[in-house]
Amino acid sequence: MESLELEQLVKKVLLEKLAEQKDVPVKTTTRGAKSGIFDTVDEAVQAAVQAQNSYKEKSLEERRNVVKAIREALYPEIESIATRAVAETGMGNVTDKILKNTLAIEKTPGVEDLYTEVATGDNGMTLYELSPYGVIGAVAPSTNPTETLICNTIGMLAAGNAVFYSPHPGAKNISLWLIEKLNTIVRESCGIDNLVVTVEKPSIQAAQEMMNHPKVPLLVITGGPGVVLQAMQSGKKVIGAGAGNPPSIVDETANIEKAAADIVDGASFDHNILCIAEKSVVAVDSITDFLLFQMEKNGALHVTNPSDIKKLEKVAVTDKGVTNKKLVGKSASEILKEAGITCDFTPRLIIVETDKSHPFATVELLMPIVPVVRVPDFDEALEVAIELEQGLHHTATMHSQNISRLNKAARDMQTSIFVKNGPSFAGLGFRGEGSTTFTIATPTGEGTTTARHFARRRRCVLTDGFSIR
């Protein structure tokens, strides 16, 4: 046999063998040695499409193994992840970010969240199941970049999708590092590359291109109202997590010592950059002084000097009436230093008594400054809290032993998360029951998102059978 004929025969046999293998690893066009990182949005999305075409053939058990692999591989990296995030963004603190990333790894639901529904009767059986969308386009913030990436990757891959991330440029390095690590973990678990992808240079333009890419059917946006609105204009299905301004109500029946400790814990956690954190306190007059005293006992600095309050206002809020981004996620000590205010201890939180119209109460500061608004009774407390929440329907907390009041506040506030007698972060499953999420989709109605929200509900009907009643 001639050498040319032999070569052709070998090629033919090899191609036939490859065709028989359903799960041949997808060819990667990843740049250099960086797993999942591409030069262009289109290259990344096309690679993710190819990867998801293979991934959708995997069993649920194989998806469970992928989720398990992510959890196990990231545990040893938690401190490094937290340290890198703080070093790059300058927001929050390492200790609390370790807790947040641990929460994302441990309490984000996986495949178990994909429930099945069935209806049977004389005419047969109807089955409802949750199937993947394909490639999800996701925007991640700079405030909680790593927690969002971990949480969403677990949920999206559990639902059978691939994901293209558009991280915030302010958290570029930690985001790319983590996306590369996630993609590598997934590839080593299931043999498929490019299920978690992004571009080398994240930008607003890249995010816009992702939103309009024809191969991206679902957008998951964790960011401010501007980027959520932009995503909605794409004409695609959008899961949008917007802003919040969570108030905390304290009435005269509350356990004031516990309420004070919980509020300081929640409002100071990671320097208040969580969107669910207490942004204001509305307290009934008869217990306000004792509440302030107890908050001080728990590490809050109560600023009472009018000139100092003005100094704080000047550095925290710009002339345009918006948050000073330079101080977002900074510690109370750093904010005091910027304002030129001295303090003889290291405060966890700054508290200021204000009226309901003060910028500290109306602007989502995302820093450890919390106004306390004094009101005569519960009815006015609820009215003021609703006003301060501004119809965002994101998060609220309340401290009371009166069940009917707790119920009324929960009904009237209509928030995605309502925490009773606990710190705000209990609403994410930290020191509280239930799963966690870092994408709270209030504008689009999903609320606390999990794997089931990243899947399509499909209906399959079998007539004349499968009913044994």
- CA radius of gyration: 25 Å
The strand line-up of the biggest sheet is 11-12-13-10-9-14-15
Classify the helix fraction into a percent range.
Answer: 40-55%
Sheet with the most strands, sense and barrel status: 7 strands, parallel
Q: Please report the number of helical segments.
A: 16
CATH topology of the largest domain: Aldehyde Dehydrogenase, Chain A, domain 1
Q: What overall geometry do the principal axes of the alpha carbons give?
A: globular
Determine the strand fraction and express it as a percent band: 15-25%
From the helix content, strand content and strand pairing, which structural class follows? alpha/beta
Number of strands: 18
Mean pLDDT: 93
Count the domains: 2
Briefly, what CATH class of the largest domain?
A: Alpha Beta
What CATH architecture of the largest domain do you see?
3-Layer(aba) Sandwich
Q: Assembly state here?
A: single chain
- Extract low-pLDDT stretches: 9-15, 17-32
CATH superfamily of the largest domain: Aldehyde Dehydrogenase, Chain A, domain 1
Separation of the first and last Cα atoms: 68 Å
